[in-house]
Amino acid sequence: MKILMPIGGALDHENPHIMREFVERSGGAQARIVILPQASALAETGSHYVHQCLSLGAGQVISLEFRQRHAADTTENLDAIEEASGIFFTGGAQMRITQLIGGTRLADALYRAYLRGCVIAGTSAGASVLSKTMIAYGKSGPTPRERIVQCSPGLGFTDRFVFDQHFRQRDRWGRLIYVVCTHPGVLGIGIDEDTAAIIEDEQHIRVYGKGAVTILDGRTISESNVAEVEAGRPVAVGHLTAHVLTAGCTYDCVNGNAHITVVPSLSDE
Amino acid sequence: MKILMPIGGALDHENPHIMREFVERSGGAQARIVILPQASALAETGSHYVHQCLSLGAGQVISLEFRQRHAADTTENLDAIEEASGIFFTGGAQMRITQLIGGTRLADALYRAYLRGCVIAGTSAGASVLSKTMIAYGKSGPTPRERIVQCSPGLGFTDRFVFDQHFRQRDRWGRLIYVVCTHPGVLGIGIDEDTAAIIEDEQHIRVYGKGAVTILDGRTISESNVAEVEAGRPVAVGHLTAHVLTAGCTYDCVNGNAHITVVPSLSDE
After folding, report:
1. Interface list for A 226-255 with B (CB within 8 A)
2. What average pLDDT does the structure give for chain A?
3. Residue A247 resides in a domain
4. Shortest Cα distance from B93 to chain A (angstroms)?
5. Which of B99, B105, B133, B253 should be substituted to probe chain A, the one whose Cβ sees the most A Cβ atoms within 10 Å?
6. Smallest Cα–Cα separation from A211: which of A190, A192, A197?
7. Domain assignment present for B155
8. How many domains does chain A have?
């Protein structure tokens, strides 16, 4: 099974329930986990996650610390990805990941790892890069507006979704609606902090964590003026479908029909 | 063989050499061509191309004239795409295409048509939509700058390339360089007016027409500050590879190694 695990940032390090789920899905004591800290400007980010995953029982964990394109494609790095059962992209700035790794042999190896069932997780910037077109940066606010969001090519494990993170905390409804209006075939997935959307085979989504996952399905849009609106003006859209799902809820998207299971509020604490 | 045919806009209607190539590659007298005029705000765009393709010897040509999402998925439209040997997206505004067709069953049918060998052509806006991440709009100028370009999800036949059009005429080096810096695995294809890049199996590119096709290969980039630069400032980049290819030149991209054939200038007139 192919598994993507985008996380909304601001992981709770006191109660690392999301990272525990990642370690368990990667194989627990048998896990071979690779951390990719390139999004972060801090030198210690990689080793922080290495220690955390080890403390949560992961068998092997390494961080690939390169910060130059020419250092991406070493035999050591490529072998680590080939053997990984779980890969984790840290937070920071998403374009640091794509400009360093995009177009390398390592990028090809990462995609092969995804296809063979290696869990591909990422938090904040690390969640954004998982899609073919990613939100690179943008503005906050509830209303979709022209130029509210800047997209660029993501690392690209899937073209079914576009991910936004810190969703409720940074007030990002407007920018995610905008992207879905531009292409209603792309499901918008807005993920709150310390929350994960676990996506199996690009089809079945399970919500995990403290906050909500907001799913914007544009396939029902009757019309919008997104192609015409200019100069920062608000965008009009009709019949956008939105789901706000909390821990334990699931979303199934088969042949364009969504099946939602909403469960009562759960406490992880 | 899968064939994409992005065209740089401003087709010469006196000497329709590009459209003739499209009709011939679609099967000539046996061709079943479908025009998709949704990018255009002009009611007569579809019928113009229908008449032109018929005058160039195409067997059957129709234009699908819907302008509402709910009108995309008629049996008539879906059957036309299933039977098409050539599909042509007209110019206009690329987001009109993606917001109308993205997420419809017609979009799925278009992708299946591409996979079975139907020629997928588009001019100007119609060229932009061919990629997974597309340039939606932007500014002119030779220097890549933060916010010079706005991307959004394209109709998405390929994630290997991003296409820009009216390339030399509208001075678009800066914005195409910017996109390639953000993800150096995406080949930037800048197409001049009345010029086509014919792409076979996402690998072999042949240039056809009056102008040039500019290919920006970011895989050689040593470093850039695209992830750090702010507020409209210029982006620095080292070791970007550029090719400027004219009619008859070919570009082969196998396993990351480009093979270029440059031929002496040809005249189409």
Report:
1. 226-228
2. 93
3. yes
4. 7
5. B99
6. A192
7. yes
8. 1
CB-based contacts of A156, cutoff 8 Å, min separation 6: A111, A130, A131, A132, B132, B159
Chain A CB within 8 Å of residue B104 CB: yes
Q: For A70, which of B152, B185, B222 is closest by C-beta distance?
A: B222
In chain A, the residue whose alpha carbon lies closest to the alpha carbon of B94 is A227
CATH number at residue A41: 3.40.50.880
Which strand (E) or helix (H) includes residue B120? strand B119-123
Q: A267 lies in a domain?
A: no
User: Averaged over B49-61, what is the pLDDT?
Assistant: 98
Q: Which residues of B touch A227 (CB under 8 A)?
A: 93, 95-96, 99
Residue B136: both structure tokens together: 């939606």
The CA distance from A217 to B120, in Å, is: 27
Which of A68, A78, A99 should be substituted to probe chain B, the one whose Cβ sees the most B Cβ atoms within 10 Å? Answer: A99
Beta carbons of A59 and A27 less than 8 angstroms apart: yes
Which is the catalytic residue, given B26, B124, B128, B131?
A: B124
Domain membership of residue B74 as a residue range = 3-261
Domain for residue A268, yes or no?
no
Closest CA to B141 of B169, B173, B118: B173
Residue B264 predicted with pLDDT over 70:
no
Given an 8 Å threshold on Cβ–Cβ distance, is B228 in contact with A93? yes
Residue A6 forms contact with B (CB below 8 Å): no
Note down pLDDT in tens along chain A; length 269 residues: 999 999 999 999 999 999 999 999 999 999 999 999 999 999 999 999 999 999 999 999 999 999 999 999 999 999 999 999 999 999 999 999 999 999 999 999 999 999 999 999 999 999 999 999 999 999 998 889 999 999 999 999 999 999 999 999 999 999 999 999 999 999 999 999 999 999 999 999 999 999 889 999 999 888 889 999 888 888 888 888 888 888 888 898 876 566 777 776 554 43
Half-sphere exposure of A137 (CA within 13 A, CB side): 15
pLDDT at position B269 is 40
